Amino acid sequence: MVTVNIGMLHYVIDHIYGAFMHRTKLSPLFFSRGWGGSKLELLERMIKDLFPEVEGQNRPPTLIQPIWRTVWETRTACLREGVFRTTCDEQLISALPPESHTARVAFLVPKYVPPQKTACVVHLAGTGDHTFDRRLRLGGPLLKQNIATMVLESPFYGQRRPMLQRGSKLLCVSDLLLLGRATIEETRSLLHWLDSEGGFGKMGVCGLSMGGVHAAMVGSLHPTPVATLPFLSPHSAVVAFCDGILRYGTAWEALREDLAVQKTVMTLEEVRQRMRNVLSLTDVTRFPIPKNPNAVIFVAATDDGYIPKHSVLELQKAWPGSEVRWVTGGHVSSFLLHNDQFRRAIVDGLNRLEWKEPPL
């Protein structure tokens, strides 16, 4: 009788999927146009400004006024889509591709329930998630528990994707930092809108993989307590691009050649070390502890070929009071099979927040 190590099988599936996606000629490599030049230098400076030693890191988010249209309506629910100008400052807007200047959101809400008795969670995109559909399917069943879902289309994705970019393969390293910084600013503004304009009683932010990293950053920087729910997420982009499967999909030679043009000669190993240094800016353990760490729930996979266990545990250690939950599977299989556990974490995280006092 042959016994199969299911955990190893999940891990192998991740690597087979990664090899198909990132080591074949079917898809271009990440960062084929190099580092991003002056844009990268700008972002390195601006991201350092997010950290707690900088005065005013809890500045209030920018207020937005999305323009809404109704997509469909039933007896119990309504789906709307909205657009607003990105809330990045002018320096960042000038670095963003024009296609990314307008942010798009989908907003699924229960009808006939007052907002002060409703929670809303903003769902952020994982790598390759260009549409609203998957995240709406994740959030849809939560309507029965009076939890609304707001889905943000990431910069560089979907209708916000630059014309020259193929799929999710960002052209420059600076694009990855730009995507993250713009996502943080826009999500904070959406949470502010849900609070001040929407009147929601509780709020949260969640995301899968890359979206979970961004959700953790937003939860850390938001000025009021929000449920923070990173799913299958590392503590830093270093884990994905330097240690994990995505390293096989990265254009290391192009990055080395870009440095050579700038009169900097490096070995490939030195190029990888420079990438580590740049992406260390995305290390969530450097961010402030969220206002209510008890409402932080990480959901991680036991046999994740993309995200090693130690990366998740570093986050939990950095944020005392947070919780880690484990699902059996790899990155790909958990993404497909464990939506119920993700929904349970959303419900439990929101339950750990107090309801907002209604205005007098």
Q: What percentage of residues falls in helices of 4 or more residues?
A: 25-40%
Give the overall silhouette. Answer: globular
User: Average pLDDT across residues?
Assistant: 89
In angstroms, what is the radius of gyration? 20 Å
Provide the number of structural domains: 1
Q: State the helix count.
A: 12
* CATH homology superfamily name: Alpha/Beta hydrolase fold, catalytic domain
* Low-confidence blocks of residues: 14-22, 52-56
As a percent range, the share of strand residues is 15-25%
Distance between the termini: 70 Å
Question: What can be said about the biggest beta sheet?
Answer: 7 strands, mixed
The CATH topology name reads: Rossmann fold
N-to-C series of helices and strands: HHEEHEEHEHEHEHHHEHEHH
Q: What is the strand arrangement across the widest sheet?
A: 1-2-3-5-4-6-7
Pfam families: ABHD18
Protein name: PROTEIN ABHD18
InterPro entries: AB_hydrolase_fold, ABHD18
Organism: Salix koriyanagi
Summarize this structure as a short list of keywords or feature phrases.
two-stranded parallel sheet, alpha/beta, 9 strands, 360 residues, Rossmann fold
Task: Give an account of the 3D structure.
This is PROTEIN ABHD18. It holds the Pfam family ABHD18. The protein is an alpha/beta fold and 360 residues long. The protein has one domain (10-51, 64-352): Rossmann fold (3-Layer(aba) Sandwich). The protein contains twelve helices and nine strands. Strands 1-2-3-5-4-6-7 form a seven-stranded mixed beta sheet, sandwiched between helices. A two-stranded parallel sheet has the order 8-9. The chain is globular, with a radius of gyration of 20 Å.
